[in-house]
Amino acid sequence: MIPITIENLVKKFGDVAALRGVSLRIEKGELFFLLGPSGCGKTTLLRNIAGFYIPDSGRILFGDDDVTRVPPHRRNTGMMFQSYALWPHMTVAKNVAFGLEERRVPSAEIKSRVHEALASVQMESYADRKIAQLSGGQQQRVALARALVIRPRCLLLDEPLSNLDAKLRLEMRTEIRRVCKESGLTAIYVTHDQKEALSISDRMAILESGTIAQVGTPEQVYRRPRTRVVADFIGETNFLEGKILSSDGATGAVETPFGRFEGHFGDPDWKPAAGSPAVLSIRPESWALREEPAARNSIPGEIRDSIYLGEVAQYQFAAASTPLKIFELNPHLAGRENGHKCHAVADPGDVVILQP
Amino acid sequence: MSRPFAKLVFLLTAAFFALFFLWPIAETIRGAFIGSDGRFTLDYIGEVFRNPIYLEGLWNSLQMGVWSTLLTALIAIPLAWISDRFLFPGKTLLGALVLVPMILPPFVGAIGIKQILGQEGALNALLASIGLLDPSAPIDWLGEGRLWGVIALNALHLYPILYLNVLAALANVDPAMEEAAENLGCTGLRKFRRVTFPLIMPGVFAGGTIVFIWSFTELGVPLMFDFTRVTSVQIFYGIKDIGGNPFPFALVVVLLASTVLMYAAGKFFFGRDSHAMMAKATSQGGPRPTSPATGLLCTALFSLVTFLAVLPHIGVVLVAFSTDWYQSILPSGWTLSHFEAALGHNLTLPSIQNSLKYAALATLVDLVLGIAIAYVVVRSNLPGRQVLDAMSMMPLAVPGLVLAFGYLAMTQEGKFFHFLNPTTDPLAILVIAYSVRRLPYVVRSAAAGFQQTSVALEEAAQNLGCPPLKALRKITIPLIAANLLAGGLLAFSFAMLEVSDSLILAQKQQDFPITKAIYELYQLLGEGRFVASALGVWAMAFLGVTIIGASIILGKKLGAIFRV
Fold first, then answer.
1. Which fold has domain A4-228?
2. Do the chains contact at B463 and A78, CB–CB below 8 Å?
């Protein structure tokens, strides 16, 4: 159990900079997510940590141990590959035993540890199967057992669930969290699936073209995105353009075409002058539909369309020419017919003021 | 993969090619341009173009190369097109059988074809027996000078190489390209000429180049036909006094220059731009069932080609089993005594042992070098890796005859490599010659294996504590074993069959490989051709088993190995 420190990491491929000065600290025992759109550098960062890439500059520390230039086979990390990379010419047990054999563990101990590792992912009865005889979910469990059995210093997961169907994905993500927390391992998990990140991470970093856009807990990132890109990438949101009226440290007021909006600044370091352009991010579920306008944070408009999903209804709400997406929990559709004119109101606590 | 290892492989391969590929060629060129007084001279080359015998030889070589290649294309392209488009009865079997001629040594087939098409041969006997021919005025089917016999035998031996190339190229053509042509009103042969053929041109060129170089410099077949007015044979006879005669050097240089020129011209006119396919095929192409009549026609065509190509070898088998065969359709009597005689002759058993030894060692060298080169080319990011790839493919573009002659020239008295001189012991130089010539096949099949095997499998092993080279050995090598086995088997069987290296470099009877033993046996009067045929049948049976094994293991990927 060790913390992992990444200091100002730069990695270029030819002229293209995949990482441009990334710094992170991942606490020991933390399940940490690297999240971002494809091409943002998250897999490059993970492969630098695993040792498959050597960075052009910067350092990687496992605890106090500088591993920046240590070859992959001496880093003692356990990695789960996107394709699982299970060796088709070996049985399940042989795959799991491989890392222990490389470490010259006595064969009696190998046997018991392999059994234990397979049991921890409920695969002990498949020890003698060939890889080709396993389903995708089973292969995923074996890959996890193979990475864990060596008792690595940290666990690295490269989009481990992307090859599974939706139902298995839900099941496996809680399974991965359970195994990580039971073993107490520091784990770094790369994904582009925000649901995965929100549901099981302790903290996450959002990467954007080779730099870190934001680090935080799922709630911090969801409720207080620092940039427009983060707000857009995590969850759904509505953007409203406007100009700063006033700011008071953490909170501020913005003049929009629909009137005055109050909210919180997403980036606490941003101190805009009055009159500077700004953009508001308001999540669909933050709006409430009212028959009467409110004194602030209120937009008049009409319902254009609605989708009823039982526990929630999704409305297309049009304010002048600006479309808004509004979710209503426990909905009653009476009085929400298409063309119905009403007001959308948001609580200042749910309004995030961002740099445009 | 570690950079130092990639560099080491690069340097070793570069050194190997410098010593055993460039050096012999340079030695030959030197011999052609440096006079006995040690000064530069153009006299020898000039003499080649003045002497009518040499000129006739070159003209015949050119005819041999051009007509063999055209005939090969005439056989191979329609076959490949039919195989790509249609399902027909017996396709799987015929598709395999049609490749068989590639592994039958054509110069052994020459014995058979003379027996069948000669003036006293089976065809004339057949025609006479049904009254179509006057027995006192037999027709010489092979023609004056035997040129057409040589060309036919070359084409029937080499068409599988072009067939496999064209088949692979056709498989790469997105069916939507042809559908688009049809949609715009272009169909049938016109569509083939305007759309399909230009798209497969790089494949045709790649296969055609190998066929041309092979037949242009073919030594064994003209030698067996006593067709001596051809450059390759003139060079072969010239090596007896290689120490004092500069003209073989000049002839080899002219031959080499001609192939390079032909290759460059071909590349310029036909192979300039390979047409990259935009994307994966959008629609399912694949062969379609045909009407029964068309299907039967396809079956008949495949059978006919296979039959014609195997016919010389059927002749060889019949000769091997016959007491005598003269002016009759079939041999007049049957015996097994030639097989005993073949095994009992003091040339044969040692020659089989020698061939096995040379071929096995050469295959081993090829596998070690081939895996290392393919690994660096596919898996490293070494800046010079494309050079390495190109280098390992070069032996395909240089005639075997040229290299063999170069090896002989560079091991002469007083040269740096004299210690490898084949008259003392040809083992080292023959193994080198065989392995250089066949290295491209092994590199290609190993590279194909590396490309198909995800690098993540090796990374996973490294992640679990396995050093890179050990990961290669424990994970990837077992996974690409089939590719390596197939490439190795091909290298092995071609080494067993190698004609020009063997004829030129093996000079003492106890060192002869099988091919040279067959040639020497054939020269014997009386029983000679029967015993030579019997040894040829042994060799064919042996190679048949290995190549069928390789094609089963490698399946459809066989074609990928024969592309330049």
1. Rossmann fold (3.40.50)
2. yes
